[in-house]
């Protein structure tokens, strides 16, 4: 697994060494949930992300956009230390979650990932039943001791993910038998089953058709009331539809941050403007 | 050259001199199909050749071996004279003498010692043991006359099966004309017939072909493989999971990986030498036993199991691991709940292939003394035992014609077990296989 991930990441994200560029826009928010300061990410000796600093607010959707290979997925994976699984990946700088540095040696990644859930680009339900897909995580964390508790969590999670009505009669059937859009919503249900604080989404709709995409976008909007969501997307429309703040990455630098309205109507940096208007990328 | 062609295709809108793509494609099409046809023909040929070889192998083994499943028996009327049998302690009686007495009754005209010896040679020495077992089980038979089917000597058996030709000159034949006459008289009296050879499936090895059986070797193989399986499956599985999922990638693990791959290619007899040096000479374990045999075969199958298990683990999509880690599972939970269940069919297949290999292995077992002539059927892991391939090797080495057919029959039994194991592998794979 590690080799595959490493190979992919090296191909996609390696950059030539140079100084980082300054971020335009206000990176700070009031009462942030997560604070990132001067985050550098290296794959072996090659740098993938340079001095990224950004705050992530409560109950907001932060969209990260940028051309392929700009480091937005790498940065997203830093936020719940999924990059730990990649050999040779090194993260420096500070990422604070509720004031505590998640890269501190005293931090255990298992509870951290229970608080910061993740939804991946390709729907990846476990090859088990729909019920088990959702109930497994609460079970291993001890959130569902009894069958009744597990039932409740499964039902409420599937409700929140907008999937309950479609699957309530076939909870014992394999999650892999669902359609792509349903699988992705199942993955979201699985992520929210442990009641995380933050949900990271890595291009969650890139493998889905427009109808499934619309459903997921509606869902993201609803989830915002309870969770902080960080979403990486290639679709500018999606970013403008679902997010309150947008961050534009380019070749490992965070070029511009701002409210989504500002970024899409009055971008300050030339690169941002080129990208959102389709002249670049 | 090819780049200029590409350019002409790319800009094909203009001049009529330029060829259309479809013409270029069509021109090469016939050749492309010819290549494919030729390859399919080669493939079909190789399959036919291998099937023919397999068929030849199987027919030759079956045609040589099937007759060993039948054995010639002779009916003797035996008077259990209470004068010759001690009621209190029947096991001590001279059953050989009783058998000889009943043979004499059949052929009263045979009187001199030399002729008698020739006559007795027609009956297996196992007859006395059979009679003894019968009397031990039913002591109340003493004093009566019983009609008992006893095994004929292997030469008689060979004659009945047509392997000894009557047309051959007497001095080149294992049975004299006089013996042939005695056998014919038995046949006239319906005292001789071929029956299913139960002995072959219930007895251990013997110097007498008609008393030799495969059961001792089957049990020896069973105990040996049990030791191998119980040790190599958990060790192999744990090693594979650790190397694949937990171990850091560095020089040490690379070195270990290279060595495991090398071990898989080491000739099996080397493992036998190692077993001889370590298990027998250093630890002083009993030789010729399934315990040591199993340990040696474990060393041999471990690399196979580890390599197959690692391949199975590698085939589990990384997305499943990310999904598990993403909801905050520990690595161990990820492995035991999601990765192992998906990799298990492949691991089991690898294990069974390794076991099948171990079942057919002879060379390393020769080194640890499992080649000894062992009559007793092993009852446990520390009893001296033979295993099936070694038994085949021993029988193939014996001069008697009757051992030839037993060799083939034993090969059939071994093949049957191999087929069974492979079928088990297929069934397990089907049972545990899941799509993702």
Describe the fold and architecture:
- Chain A is globular.
- With about 280 residues, chain A is α/β, with parallel strands linked by helices.
- In chain A, α5 crosses α7.
- Chain A has one domain: 3-Layer(aba) Sandwich (Rossmann fold).
- Chain B is mainly alpha-helical and about 425 residues long.
- Chain B has three domains: about 50 residues; about 140 residues, no CATH class; about 220 residues, MetI-like (MetI-like fold, Orthogonal Bundle).
- In chain B, strands 2-1-3 form a three-stranded antiparallel beta sheet.
- Chain B is elongated.
- Chains A and B meet through α1, α3, β6, α4 and α7 of A and α13 and α14 of B.
Offer a concise description of the structure:
Chain A is built from 11 helices and 10 strands. With 281 residues, chain A is of the alpha/beta class.
Helix-residue proportion of chain A: 25-40%
| Strand neighbour order, sheet with most strands of chain A | 6-7-8-3-9-10
The CATH topology annotation of chain A reads as Rossmann fold
Q: Rg of chain A from C-alpha positions?
A: 19 Å
CATH architecture of the largest domain in chain B: Orthogonal Bundle
Shape label of chain B: elongated
Q: In the CATH hierarchy, what is the class of chain A?
A: Alpha Beta
Structure summary, number of beta strands of chain B = 3
The average pLDDT of chain B is 89
Oligomer: heterodimer
Backbone structural class of chain A = alpha/beta
How does the major sheet of chain A shape up? 6 strands, mixed
Question: What profile does the largest beta sheet of chain B have?
Answer: 3 strands, antiparallel
Low-confidence stretches of chain B: 1-14
CATH homologous superfamily caption of the largest domain in chain B: MetI-like
Total helices of chain A: the number is 11
Distance between the termini of chain A: 30 Å
Regions with little confidence, pLDDT below 50 for 5+ residues of chain A: 7-15
Write down the Rg of chain B.
32 Å
Strand order of the largest sheet of chain B: 2-1-3
Percent helix of chain B, as a range, is 55-70%
């Amino acid at each position: 697994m590690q080799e595959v991930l490493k190979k992919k990441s090296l191909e996609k994200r390696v950059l030539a060494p140079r100084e980082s560029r300054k971020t335009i826009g206000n990176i700070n928010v009031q009462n942030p949930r997560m604070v990132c300061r001067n985050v550098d990410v290296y794959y072996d000796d090659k740098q993938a992300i340079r001095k990224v600093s950004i705050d992530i607010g409560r109950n907001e959707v932060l969209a990260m956009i940028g051309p392929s290979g700009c480091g937005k997925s790498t940065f997203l994976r830093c936020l719940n230390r999924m990059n730990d699984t990649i050999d040779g990946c090194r993260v420096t700088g500070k990422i604070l979650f509720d004031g505590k540095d998640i890269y501190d040696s005293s931090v255990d990644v298992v509870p951290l990932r229970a608080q910061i859930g993740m939804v991946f680009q390709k729907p990846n339900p476990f090859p088990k039943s729909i019920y088990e897909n959702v109930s497994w995580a609460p079970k291993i964390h001890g959130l569902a001791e009894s069958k009744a508790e597990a039932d409740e969590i499964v039902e409420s999670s599937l409700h929140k993910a907008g999937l309950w009505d479609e699957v309530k009669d076939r909870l014992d059937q394999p999650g892999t038998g669902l359609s792509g859009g349903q699988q992705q919503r199942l993955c979201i249900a699985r992520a929210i089953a442990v009641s995380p604080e933050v949900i990271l989404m890595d291009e969650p709709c890139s493998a889905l058709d427009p109808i499934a995409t619309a459903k997921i976008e509606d869902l993201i909007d609803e989830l915002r009331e309870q969770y902080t969501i960080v979403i990486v997307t290639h679709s500018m429309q999606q970013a403008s539809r679902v997010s309150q703040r947008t961050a534009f990455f380019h070749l490992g630098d965070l070029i511009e941050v701002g409210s989504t309205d500002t970024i899409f109507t009055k971008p300050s940096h030339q690169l941002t403007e080129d990208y959102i208007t389709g002249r670049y990328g | 050259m090819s780049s200029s062609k590409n350019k002409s295709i790319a800009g094909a809108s203009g001049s009529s001199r330029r060829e259309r793509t479809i013409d270029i494609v069509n021109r090469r099409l016939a050749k492309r199909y010819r290549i494919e046809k030729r390859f399919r023909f080669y493939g079909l040929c190789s399959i036919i050749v291998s099937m023919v070889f397999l068929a030849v192998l199987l027919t030759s083994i079956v045609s040589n071996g099937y007759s060993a499943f039948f054995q010639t028996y002779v009916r003797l009327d035996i008077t259990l004279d209470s004068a010759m049998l001690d009621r209190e302690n029947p096991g001590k009686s001279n059953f050989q003498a009783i058998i000889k007495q009943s043979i004499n009754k059949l052929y009263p005209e045979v009187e001199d010692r030399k002729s008698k010896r020739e006559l007795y040679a027609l009956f297996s020495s196992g007859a006395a043991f059979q009679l003894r077992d019968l009397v031990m089980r039913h002591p109340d038979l003493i004093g009566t006359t019983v009609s008992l089917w006893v095994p004929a000597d292997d030469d008689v058996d060979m004659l009945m099966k047509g392997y000894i030709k009557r047309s051959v000159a007497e001095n080149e034949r294992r049975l004299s004309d006089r013996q042939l006459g005695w056998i014919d008289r038995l046949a006239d009296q319906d005292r001789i017939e071929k029956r299913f050879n139960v002995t072959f499936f219930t007895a251990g090895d013997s110097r007498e072909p008609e008393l030799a059986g495969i059961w001792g070797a089957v049990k020896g193989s069973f105990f040996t493989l049990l030791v191998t399986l119980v040790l190599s499956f958990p060790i192999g599985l744990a090693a594979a999971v650790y190397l694949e999922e937990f171990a850091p990638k560095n020089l040490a693990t690379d070195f270990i990986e290279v060595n495991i791959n090398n071990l898989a290619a080491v000739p099996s007899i080397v493992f036998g030498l190692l077993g001889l040096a370590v298990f027998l000479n250093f630890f002083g374990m009993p030789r010729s036993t399934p315990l040591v045999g199993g340990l040696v075969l474990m060393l041999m199958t471990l690399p196979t199991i580890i390599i197959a298990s690692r391949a199975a683990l590698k085939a589990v999509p990384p997305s499943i691991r990310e999904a598990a880690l993403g909801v905050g599972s520990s690595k161990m939970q990820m492995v035991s709940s999601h990765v192992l269940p998906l990799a298990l069919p492949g691991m089991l297949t690898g294990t069974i292939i390794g076991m099948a290999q171990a079942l057919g292995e002879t060379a390393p077992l020769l080194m640890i003394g499992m080649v000894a002539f062992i009559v007793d059927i092993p009852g446990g892991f520390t009893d001296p035992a033979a295993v099936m391939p070694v038994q085949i090797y021993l029988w193939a080495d014996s001069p008697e014609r009757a051992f030839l057919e037993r060799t083939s029959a034993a090969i059939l039994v071994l093949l049957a077990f191999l087929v069974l194991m492979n079928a088990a592998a297929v069934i397990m794979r089907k049972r545990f296989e899941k799509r993702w």
